[in-house]
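Practice problem 4.
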């Protein structure tokens, strides 16, 4: 069964030192966590791995995180399970399933200059963003959906403008295969979306990861 976990990085930073969390993930991941310039980013990276570990346990998967490998586009993978991780601001999310390929994305909705992002959208999408009462909110709606798609497909950011979304649709077709899109709501000020190769239940509720 597909599971989505989410965590509030701020709460973990208040309760734990990074070293406390690192003890619960493989040593080979410690170096990357410690390379982050800002503590929040290091916590977010580590929390993503801790939620993945929790997901493996909940699915009764005896898989060592230390076996994680990476595709050419730097997408991490583990044999025997499908998963994806995203984080922005203080929000960290992880989706996991035995067999279902999925991509997930969350973004903190901060004020940005939209002009520099037009190249990532088709002309139809960009026109829709510009005509909205709240263009920033619409931008993040599109961005999280497109990011979730490329993560599910295992391709890089160069494909963003090769994807055209129907503003009213919940599907995306690539190479005659239908992918399903769903908005995710966690907290105010954050946008989220998930792309899966099978339709997931409307009443699927993300699991709050509060301890480890």
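Answer key:
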């Amino acid at each position: 069964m597909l599971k989505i976990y989410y965590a509030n990085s701020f709460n973990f930073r208040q309760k734990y030192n990074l070293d406390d969390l690192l003890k619960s993930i493989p040593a080979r991941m410690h170096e990357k966590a410690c390379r982050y310039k800002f503590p929040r980013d290091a916590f977010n990276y580590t929390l993503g791995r801790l939620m993945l570990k929790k997901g493996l346990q909940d699915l009764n998967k005896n898989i060592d995180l230390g076996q994680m490998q990476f595709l050419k586009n730097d997408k991490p993978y583990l044999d025997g399970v499908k998963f994806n991780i995203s984080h922005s601001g203080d929000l960290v999310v992880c989706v996991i399933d035995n067999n279902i390929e999925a991509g997930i994305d969350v973004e903190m909705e901060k004020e940005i200059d939209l002009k520099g992002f037009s190249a990532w959208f088709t002309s139809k999408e960009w026109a829709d963003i510009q005509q909205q009462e709240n263009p920033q909110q619409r931008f993040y709606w599109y961005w999280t959906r497109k990011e979730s798609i490329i993560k599910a497909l295992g391709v890089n950011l160069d494909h963003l403008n090769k994807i055209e979304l129907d503003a009213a649709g919940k599907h995306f077709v690539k190479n005659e295969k239908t992918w399903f899109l769903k908005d995710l709501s966690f907290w105010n000020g954050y946008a989220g979306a998930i792309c899966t190769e099978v339709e997931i239940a409307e009443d699927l509720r993300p699991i709050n990861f509060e301890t480890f």
